[in-house]
Design goal:
The complex is a heterotrimer of chains A (224), B (208) and C (325).
Chain A lengths: L1 H23 L7 E3 L2 E3 L6 E3 H8 L23 E9 L6 E11 L6 H20 L30 E7 L16 H19 L10 H8 L3
Parallel strand pairs in A: 5-6
Antiparallel strand pairs in A: 1-2, 2-3, 4-5
Helix pairs in contact in A: 1-2, 3-4
Chain B lengths: L1 H10 L18 H6 L5 H8 L6 E7 L2 E7 L5 H8 L18 E4 L2 E4 L12 E3 L12 H8 L9 H14 L5 H7 L10 H15 L2
Parallel strand pairs in B: 1-5
Antiparallel strand pairs in B: 1-2, 3-4, 3-5
Helix pairs in contact in B: 5-8
Chain C lengths: L4 E3 L4 H11 L3 E4 L5 H6 L7 E4 L9 E4 L3 E5 L4 H6 L1 H6 L1 H9 L3 H6 L2 H6 L5 H4 L37 H8 L3 E6 L2 E6 L22 E7 L6 E8 L10 E10 L3 E10 L6 E2 L1 H7 L6 H8 L15 H16 L1
Helix pairs in contact in C: 5-9, 11-12
The complex binds flavin-adenine dinucleotide, iron/sulfur cluster and FE2/S2 (inorganic) cluster (2 copies).
The site of flavin-adenine dinucleotide has 31 residues of chain C, from strand 2, helix 2, helix 6, helix 7 and strand 8.
């Protein structure tokens, strides 16, 4: 979305500059736009955006922006690797995720705080996919039995592990106008695999169906 | 804002009828007493003292006193949202399973969807709207903004009300107490790490 | 939700009379945290809701050195969780209360309602006309049953969902029941029935009978207790299996006597007399505890998806015994 907003903002700036060039009687290419003011660069001729809008006699300037197409002949992938540290209680089947380290190539970081929140959310949804959430269906009637927020188990604040976020990769203007790739969805993808591999590493159990609930672990351990 | 709500409420008599009086609105439906198997006159007396469907309740919401005539099958959340237009209280699951509708009742966090409006009779309710002082945000609201304690924001009013109840009853909670206090609020976006940070920061600021 | 009459008796006698008067159309209502969901989903269709909360004197906890504690049935779970004497003398009750639902539900839900709540079987809670709802079939028996019972089932295979009931059973608590003919006191063990005795109701309570108070005897000098609840989610989840333990222990070497109660395994809070006998004199080490556990729930009948509960209950019991040592 950010590239689309950026694109729309560029179009609006263009409209403002074009109007200012008419008002100031200067060529558009000679105008300098800075902090809400358009000038000739030496400040002998200048006009604020508010004044331009007033002169244009409009209430708002609208533009529709879009993210650019992927450039031809250039692959854009969002790479990521995650590591899970888990504890498996072999007496109860409980898997506790102690820590997730997530390293993703997200391109340019625009706002680190929002970015980390996206990482957390994605990882938690991946963790929940790995260990908790399950749509259980009655096979004779086809009716879903977990139709509410209690029997369909989403994680609570008690369920999140320590999460370490590492951003790799750099701003790349071939990717998009702002040089960012994105996170959120990409952060969900590796989590379940990392957790399942960590369970294998800890116990030798290859769990092949999600969610890896305690009953499944106990069924494996006790050959039930 | 509250005054506006009050006026609006007065003109809306379709769903819930508000009465300005404090007089009990109980009346007897004779068929119900006749329906009752018992016939002894003393029991009929007992039954007579109980009202039929709609009943009057008095309730304080965000410091304002109201009285309403409510139907028994109205939840507190419905009263707050539909009648008082306090739509900051979110109804998500309507079954006490998510926390979106959390409000305070006599200083304790409750799910307003999972209790009857009639059970709020005589009680003091605080909703997310009650945390604002004019346009000024409560330190908890500020902390949620600063720490980015949300993504989509739909669970946020409920999260903040739970945190408010937690800090009211325990101004300096440790991490474990925060987790326990916030454990009745689901965040589908899973902004949990920042939610916890927000509560920690608000506690620090409020204790200064 | 259909509309209903909300009736507010101010004495337990009035409440009881009203129930009898209105017969099947009446439902007792305490915090409503369970009843309201069932009303919203039309699983309960009562038209007279008898609110117990206006009845005075039933929402407190009283302590007495010789007779123990007395908890009014309208006491909220939060009140029980934060009571300091319960915390220090009846750890099992404190821990069970803290494990129930969420802070918001504990603030409203009462002890009486907790003991009398309806089962969580997903077929029962969804629109399946199963045995417990008067139909002819148990859909869980051959259906999805990972949370169903491993012992005491048939023709219905629910587990009783109450955490407090398990803790109170391990404590041998007594229940004071009010009815129009007067009060009677029964061991909590006798409050619950198996589906083979009655498949449409979980307790023995008859119309007009109301749980008034719960009594728990004072703990002995060497009493130690605990409640371990195993749930899939970190908080706000019903027990897959839970274990309540009350042990008399001498010098951390052996158990004088003890009682274990189990949740999540049977249609009622469960206890196993043979196992409880084995606890007397049991040495507190892993080998002898494991050996004692061998025969626990030997009469179980597991369903297609719940066999995991057997190792789980044994392992949790072993862990809680050794933790108390
Ligand atoms: C999302 C969710 C999660 C939950 N998690 C748990 C959990 O983890 N553990 C757990 O144990 N419970 C759990 N509960 C169940 C339950 O709602 C609470 O435990 C609560 O304590 C019930 O009390 P109440 O006063 O709200 O009961 P109500 O809903 O008022 O009543 C429940 C039943 O008990 C009967 N009743 C009430 N009081 C009496 C009385 N004094 N005498 C006779 N009958 C009476 C009512 O008629 C009704 O049938 C959960 C509920 C929800 C909605
Ligand atoms: S276990 Fe009981 S409640 Fe569940 S489907 Fe079977 S009969 Fe119904
Ligand atoms: S809306 Fe009330 S708890 Fe979900
Ligand atoms: S912020 Fe989206 S649900 Fe919590």
């Amino acid at each position: 979305m950010t590239p689309a907003v950026y694109d729309a903002a560029l179009q609006i700036r263009k409209k403002l500059l074009s109007a200012a060039s008419a008002i100031l009687e200067l060529l558009e290419k000679d105008l300098v736009y800075s902090e809400g003011t358009i000038s000739d660069g030496t400040n002998t001729k200048k006009i604020t955006i508010q004044e331009v809008i007033d002169k244009m006699n409009v209430r708002e300037i609208v533009a529709a922006g879009a993210r650019n197409e992927n450039p031809k002949g250039y692959m854009i992938n969002s790479f990521g690797a995650q590591f899970a540290e888990v504890e498996v209680d072999t007496e109860t089947g409980r898997v506790t995720v102690l820590k997730i380290v997530a390293a993703h190539d997200i391109g340019r970081v625009i706002n680190r705080k929002l970015l980390e929140n996206q990482f957390h959310g994605g990882i938690m949804q991946g963790l929940s996919y790995a260990l908790l959430e399950e749509r259980i269906m009655d096979e004779y009637t086809g009716k879903v039995l977990t139709t509410n927020l209690h029997s369909y188990k989403m994680p609570t604040v008690m369920d999140y592990p320590e999460i370490e976020v590492i951003t790799v990769g750099e701003s790349d203007n071939m990717i998009s106008a702002v040089g960012a790739k994105g996170i959120g969805e990409p952060a969900i993808i590796p989590t379940a695999g990392a957790i399942a591999n960590a369970i294998f590493n800890a116990t030798g159990l290859r769990m092949k169906s999600l969610p890896i609930t305690p009953d499944k672990i106990l069924n494996e351990i006790y050959k039930l | 804002m509250e005054d506006k709500n009050k006026k609006k409420g007065l003109s809306r008599r379709d769903f819930l009828k508000r009465t300005g009086t404090g007089v009990a609105g109980s009346y007897i439906i004779l068929s119900d007493i006749n329906e009752a198997k018992s016939t002894s006159s003393s029991e009929k007396e007992t039954l007579k003292t109980f009202s039929s469907y709609a009943q009057n309740i008095s309730i304080t919401v965000n410091g304002q006193d109201y009285s309403f005539m409510v139907e028994p099958n109205t939840t507190l959340a419905e009263l707050l949202r539909d009648e008082l237009k306090l739509t900051g209280t979110k109804v998500v699951c309507n079954h006490g399973e998510c926390g979106g509708c959390t409000v305070l009742m006599n200083t304790k966090a409750v799910y307003s969807c999972q209790m009857l409006a009639m059970d709020a009779d005589g009680k003091d309710i605080i909703t997310i709207e009650g945390l604002l002082k004019g346009e000024e945000l409560h330190p908890l609201q500020e902390a949620f903004v600063e720490q980015d304690g949300m993504q989509c924001g739909f669970c946020t009013p409920g999260q903040i009300m739970s945190a408010y109840a937690l800090l009211l009853n325990n101004p300096q909670p440790n991490k474990q107490e925060i987790l326990k206090g916030m454990s009745g609020n689901i965040c589908r976006c899973s902004a949990y790490p920042n939610i916890v940070k927000s509560v920690e920061e608000a506690a620090r600021k409020m204790n200064k | 939700m259909k509309n209903f009459q909300y009736i507010n008796p101010t004495s337990i006698k009035e409440a009881s009379n009203l129930m009898i008067s209105f017969g099947e159309s009446a439902l007792l209502y305490a915090g409503g945290t369970d009843a309201l969901s069932l009303l919203k989903n039309d699983i309960y269709t009562h038209s007279k809701i008898i609110n117990l909360k206006k009845i005075g004197g039933l929402n407190s906890i009283t302590h007495n050195k010789t007779s123990g504690i007395r908890i009014g049935s309208l006491t909220t779970i939060s009140e029980i969780a934060k009571d300091e004497t319960i915390k220090s003398e009846y750890k099992i009750l404190h821990e069970a209360a803290n494990e129930i639902a969420s802070p918001q539900l504990r603030n409203i839900g009462t002890l009486g309602g907790n003991l009398c709540q309806s089962p969580r079987c997903w077929y029962y809670r969804e629109d399946f006309d199963c045995i417990r709802k008067g139909g002819g079939e148990c859909y869980a028996y051959e259906g999805r049953n990972k949370f169903h019972c491993v012992v005491g089932g048939g023709p219905c295979y629910i587990v009783h969902p109450s955490d407090m009931a398990v803790a109170l059973l391990a404590l041998d608590a007594k229940v004071i029941i009010f009815s129009e003919v007067g009060e009677r006191t029964i061991p909590i063990n006798e409050l619950y029935v198996l589906p083979s005795e009655n498949s449409s109701q979980e307790t023995i309570l008859k119309p007009g009978e109301i749980i008034k108070e719960i009594l728990v005897a004072p703990p002995g000098q060497n009493t130690r207790s605990s409640y371990i609840k195993f749930k899939e989610r970190g908080a706000w989840d019903f027990a897959s299996v839970s274990v309540g333990l009350v042990l008399e222990i001498v010098a951390a070497k052996s158990i004088i006597e003890g009682k274990a109660a189990f949740g999540g395994v049977a249609p009622r809070p469960w206890t196993d007399d043979k196992f409880n006998k084995k606890l007397s004199g049991l040495a507190l080490n892993e080998t002898s505890v494991s050996e004692a556990l061998n025969s626990l729930l030997n009469d179980s009948e597991t369903l297609s998806e719940n066999a995991y509960k057997l190792p789980l209950v044994k392992n949790l019991t072993k862990r809680s015994i050794l933790n108390l040592a």
